[in-house]
């Protein structure tokens, strides 16, 4: 059993991670400022003897005694992270500094939830970890992309300078139950729109691609990465290489939900990446991991969740 800190622990991903860590017998301290996280996501854990929930913003220092840290805190949907971009950069950069400082003091192993957005709008396809990316440093997405890139820099400098035991995973478009209905990301948007019979909003012409990883697969990769040999820092891509256009995703969601929503086309957001697909050879080799859940199966689970949430 380890004492484990999960920042952003009441978020969509964080709450699934807390479930898994408790099931594995760990003692979990869940920290969240509830900007995009929600108490509802962890309500079922509040009476668990090894679960503790704390309202805290990682841009401020935190003094606790833990052995493992998963640093997930940061709004992840483009709509949310662009709402207060200065705070988004602070969350990634000051949050990383504070959590790395904590890890250094208590000699904890620390994992950073990084993102495929460090590759920006990539001209290399699929993306391997060696690729340095193509990121606009001054655009609307930069608060997230550059914040997460700087967090990676801090992790590796703490590793080299202070011999910190770090792990970095780059997450590619994860989805699943407990996403917020107003999250703004494409999978939840399309499902909620289809369930309500509203128009499905395709940004641009819908030919841009993404590769979607179901939350259970992602959590398994988190756990394996945290347990990996000390010398293996990553960064390691975690995602499902199955690549789809947004038009294909919309049609899949519509066929699974039924109903009579129409597809409507809206302007493409600035700097929206054209294509994205993880090369997961490193995760397969070092973690013995690969995703198991096909998009259609993951979508069915997610649709069932939203159907119940929306009371339909
Ligand atoms: O998961 C990732 O790898 C990263 O990428 C995501 O960014 P993005 O891929 O743009 O995520 P979405 O907002 O879900 O958009 C995916 C695509 O669907 C499109 N979209 C989105 C919403 C919508 O209603 N309609 C629509 O066509 C977007 O323009 C984009 O091309 C999020 O920024 C991050 O959570 C994450 O770190």
UniProtKB/TrEMBL annotation:
This is UDP-glucuronate decarboxylase. It comes from Dorcoceras hygrometricum. One of its GO terms (molecular function) is NAD+ binding. Its cofactor is NAD(+). Residues 4-239 form the NAD-dependent epimerase/dehydratase domain. It catalyses: UDP-alpha-D-glucuronate + H(+) = UDP-alpha-D-xylose + CO2. It is found in: Cytoplasm. Belongs to the NAD(P)-dependent epimerase/dehydratase family. UDP-glucuronic acid decarboxylase subfamily. GO terms for biological process: D-xylose metabolic process; UDP-D-xylose biosynthetic process. CDD domains: UGD_SDR_e (cd05230). GO terms for cellular component: cytoplasm.
């Amino acid at each position: 059993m380890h004492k484990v800190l999960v920042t952003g622990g009441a978020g969509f991903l964080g709450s699934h991670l807390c479930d898994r860590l408790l099931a594995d017998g760990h003692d979990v301290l869940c920290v969240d400022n509830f900007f995009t996280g929600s108490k509802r996501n962890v309500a079922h854990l509040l009476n668990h003897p090894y679960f503790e929930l704390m309202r805290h913003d990682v841009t401020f220092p935190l003094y606790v005694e833990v052995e493992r840290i998963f640093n997930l805190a940061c709004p992840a949907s483009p709509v949310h992270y662009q709402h207060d971009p200065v705070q988004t950069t602070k969350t990634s950069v000051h949050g990383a500094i504070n959590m790395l400082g904590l890890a250094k003091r208590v000699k904890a192993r620390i994992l950073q939830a990084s993102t495929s957005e460090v590759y920006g709008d990539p001209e290399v396809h699929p993306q391997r970890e060696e690729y340095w990316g193509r990121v606009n440093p001054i655009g609307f997405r930069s608060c997230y992309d550059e914040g997460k890139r700087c967090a990676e820099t801090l992790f590796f400098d703490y590793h080299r300078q202070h011999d910190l035991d770090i792990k970095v995973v780059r997450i590619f478009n994860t989805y699943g139950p407990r996403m917020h209905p107003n999250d703004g990301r494409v999978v939840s948007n399309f499902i909620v729109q289809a369930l309500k019979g509203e128009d499905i909003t395709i940004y641009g012409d819908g030919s841009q691609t993404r590769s979607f990883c179901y939350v259970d697969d992602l959590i398994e990769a988190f756990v394996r990465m945290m347990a990996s040999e000390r010398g293996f820092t990553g960064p390691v891509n975690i995602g499902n290489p199955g690549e789809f256009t947004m038009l294909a995703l919309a049609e899949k969601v519509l066929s699974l939900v039924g109903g009579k929503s129409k597809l409507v086309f809206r302007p493409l957001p600035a700097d929206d990446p054209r294509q994205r697909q993880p090369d997961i050879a490193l995760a397969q080799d070092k973690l013995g991991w690969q995703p198991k859940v096909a998009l259609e199966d993951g979508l069915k689970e997610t649709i069932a969740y939203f159907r119940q949430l929306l009371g339909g």
